[in-house]
Amino acid sequence: MSGGEANGGAAFAFTPEVMARAKAIIAKYPPGRQASAVLPLLDLAQRQNGGWVSRAAMDHVAEVLEMAPIKVYEVATFYTMFNLKPVGRHLVQLCRTTPCWLRGSEELRYAAQQELGVGLKQTTADGQFTLVEVECLGACVNAPVVQINDHFYEDLDAESFRELLRALRRGETPAIGSKTGRQCSAPASGPTTLKEIGRG
Amino acid sequence: MPKLSVNGIEVEVPAGTTVLQACEAAGAEVPRFCYHDRLSIAGNCRMCLVEVEKSPKPVASCAMPASEGMVVKTNTAQVKKAREGVMEFLLINHPLDCPICDQGGECDLQDQAMTYGRHASRFDEGKRAVKDKDIGPLIKTIMTRCIHCTRCIRFGEEVAGVEVLGLTGRGEHMEVGPYVEAVVNTELSGNIIDLCPVGALTSKPYEFHARSWELVKTESIDVLDAVGANIRVDTRGAEVMRILPRLNEDVNEEWLADKSRFACDGLKKRRLDRCFVRRHGKLEPASWDEAFGAIAERLRGVAGNRIAAFAGDLADAEAMLLLKELITALGSPHMDCRQDGAKLDASSRAGYLFNTTIAGIERADACLLIGTNPRWEAPLVNARLRKRWRRGGFAIGLIGEPRELTYKYSQLGAGPQTLAEIANDRHAFAATLKAAKAPMLILGQGALARPDGAQILAAARQLALDFGLVREGWNGFNVLHGAAARVGGLDLGFVPGQGGRDVAGILDGVQSGAIEIVYLLGADEIDTARLGGAFVIYQGHHGDAGASRADVVLPGAAYTEKSATYVNLEGRPQRTRRAIHPLGEAREDWKILRALSEALGRKLPYDTVEAVRQRLGVVAPSFRALGRVEPAAFGNFGSPGPLGSEPFKSAIANYYMTDPISRASPTMAQCVEAFVAPAQTKTGTHG
């Protein structure tokens, strides 16, 4: 109906290695409460399935956890982190919430659209990139922020973002974190406090 | 037992009661959408907000446990304002299409908006629209109207045991539906129409047919299975528009099975509305006098023992009593109400009743199902079994065909061997039964309607005695019937008299020529091809198998058209009420038999239905306890002997068509196509 069966397609089953990890996760919960493992198992399924959960993948999770498939669909459709349609190799998630927007997230969007030649929620023809906007990624100190697959890229501007995308396209592994070189979320202008040692 | 005050009224409620229930106990009405006393608490509609002293915000009363010393107020300005706010939010995305909504007039949202709604909306943005879902031929969905109370989801999960519906998406994009293409395949699906507080789920067959305020409501009893669910028949003019359940905690709670609810359109099809007499091989319309004349003429000079009678599955007790007395007066002992040939023993009442009672299932702690598929034979009994099973500590074993029931059970075996193994303590389930404090067994008609049925009945009886299923204050021996007429027929002894023939015997007699006249009181489930050259009189309301074979057809009344007594499988006599008049020249069945008896010169001494009922009470005192179950003494029944080896088969092959009414129903035909046919093809291709 709403997206489900269109992507039913290929059969899905955990590979033996993934299944072993799934078993280990299920074992964390008391017997009979295996359904609690639905979130981590959906994550495993998404990773194995190339970044998205197909109907077959959800049905497989339901089977492994002995729960009704609809209960898995409910969870998978609730969390935006589960992709219900195929995505590119790099899922580019632009944060658009207020702090990032104030720090120029719109420019990043224009830059990405130009660089990749696709609009939001679209995938490049070569299957490399899917561009989406998301709500707050929780790294506001280093705004604007973009999450690509599992990694955060911070303190971006249009130019550094374009370069990042080009590097990914070339198959490189760019450094994660701040693009301005600051340490984590330390002040951009260097330390502002605790500069003197030994007083008090 | 916390004591609290509601609007200044002190109430004491049992521990675990919610504030909402406490408010009700104090007589304060609390509006609600998601809360339902037979489902788990969701607390998501927020309509039941009340003010609780020392609580900074209004409290959702349905989800708040009542505690000692609470001071609850339901009638303050703050409460009204809070509920108005909730209502405004609920209406933001609700279409204002009440004039074309089937729920209009009986809609919780509409009613409560009268009290808590604003006169106009402040919402200027576009309302959302949700795609409708196709969930089968019974339920129409208009999902834009849905307010996400989740009652339908909880019903499927908790009562019906079929998890198909769910809540997918989030926020603005949240939808109730199956997510994928799926039908809600449960025999109890119609109940979600009643549960839906808005017009999102409505009855498809009833779509745009009537408004609730045009309907005349008649309280009655359902007869399409043997449960005897309490129903309300809604009629407009001479038409039954719909059938809804009515509360009876001991029988159906507030649920109703789909066949009982939706087969009512079969009451308008293939009806017999006048007499017919076969002339030159063709049934031709006739008057009552001509029909009675034809019968009297054919009966003249025929010896009593060449006459036989069958009572069908929908026959009422009054008519069966009169037919029994008429046949006896004509000098025949040949009669039977067990159309399916079940070897039920009418001599001991406990031997054919559901002795535990339906409500009693909730006290049981182990259950052995023998040759039965309760999900199809009595969906509401099955719902009780599931209700008990959900509480835990209820081991269920099944001997017979493996079926998808709505609870987990262990498949013990296929046939009488397994029954014998358990009886001889050579099976693991024997220990379960022995250890149980309140064990029960349910014997289906599939285990009795077979050549060794009487032996199986005896074996089950012996098992009940050996394993303590029958003890002080507990009777765990149960026979599950499928026919509404059966227990009544057995109670009043519509079985072969001294030297009489049973179903098979009568049919054999017809073949050999020993029986030449057969009276069918709504009997359509017998093999009419075996009626050979007999003169067949059919009395009933539908042109089904019996009528098409008959030589004389007498049009009777359907259960919605007469006040008649039916005894349910527990042995509970209940009475239907007349909602509409019988069709055309049709008459109430007892009146037809009374008139016929006079035409045959054997006038029965009953001029009023009260006189017939008085006689019923004499023939079987259990008929006097209207609406109650008289416990039956555990006597001797069945005939011990060697058991066969044939596996048990369920008595019902197709839930949606079991009687002349459901067979005539277009809605039931659609159900067969949607639910039964796909399953059968599946079994066909998968071996």
Essential attributes:
heterodimer; A: 200 residues; alpha/beta; Arc Repressor Mutant, subunit A; Glutaredoxin; six-stranded mixed beta sheet; 7 helices; 6 strands; 12% strand; disordered N terminus; B: 687 residues; five-stranded mixed beta sheet; 17% strand
Secondary-structure map with pairings?
The complex is a heterodimer of chains A (200) and B (687).
Chain A: H1 16-26, H2 38-48, H3 55-64, H4 69-78, E1 90-95, H5 98-102, H6 105-116, E2 122-123, E3 129-134, E4 146-148, E5 151-154, H7 158-169, E6 177-178
Parallel strand pairs in A: 1-3, 5-6
Antiparallel strand pairs in A: 1-4, 2-3, 4-5
Chain B: E1 3-6, E2 9-12, H1 19-25, E3 49-52, E4 59-60, E5 71-73, H2 77-92, H3 108-116, E6 139-141, H4 151-160, E7 166-168, E8 175-177, H5 191-195, E9 201-203, E10 216-221, E11 230-236, E12 239-245, H6 258-262, E13 275-279, E14 282-286, H7 288-299, E15 307-311, H8 317-329, E16 335-336, E17 366-370, H9 374-377, H10 379-390, E18 395-399, E19 410-413, H11 416-423, H12 428-435, E20 439-444, H13 445-448, H14 453-466, E21 470-471, E22 474-475, E23 477-480, H15 486-491, H16 503-512, E24 517-521, E25 535-540, H17 545-549, E26 552-555, E27 565-567, E28 573-575, H18 589-599, H19 609-619, H20 660-664, H21 666-685
Parallel strand pairs in B: 1-5, 15-16, 15-24, 17-18, 17-20, 18-19, 20-23, 24-25, 25-26
Antiparallel strand pairs in B: 1-2, 3-4, 3-5, 6-9, 7-8, 10-11, 11-12, 13-14, 13-26, 21-22, 27-28
Helix pairs in contact in B: 8-18, 8-19, 11-14
SS-based class of chain B: alpha/beta
Number of domains of chain A: 2
Structural class of chain A comes to alpha/beta
CATH topology of the largest domain in chain A: Glutaredoxin
* Oligomerization category of the chains in this entry: heterodimer
Please, what is the CATH homologous superfamily of the largest domain in chain A? Glutaredoxin
N-to-C SSE string of chain A, H for helix and E for strand: HHHHEHHEEEEHE
Strand order of the largest sheet of chain A: 2-3-1-4-5-6
**In which range does the helix fraction of chain B lie?**
25-40%
Characterize the main sheet of chain B: 7 strands, mixed
Overall pLDDT metric of chain B: 95
Count of helical regions of chain A: 7
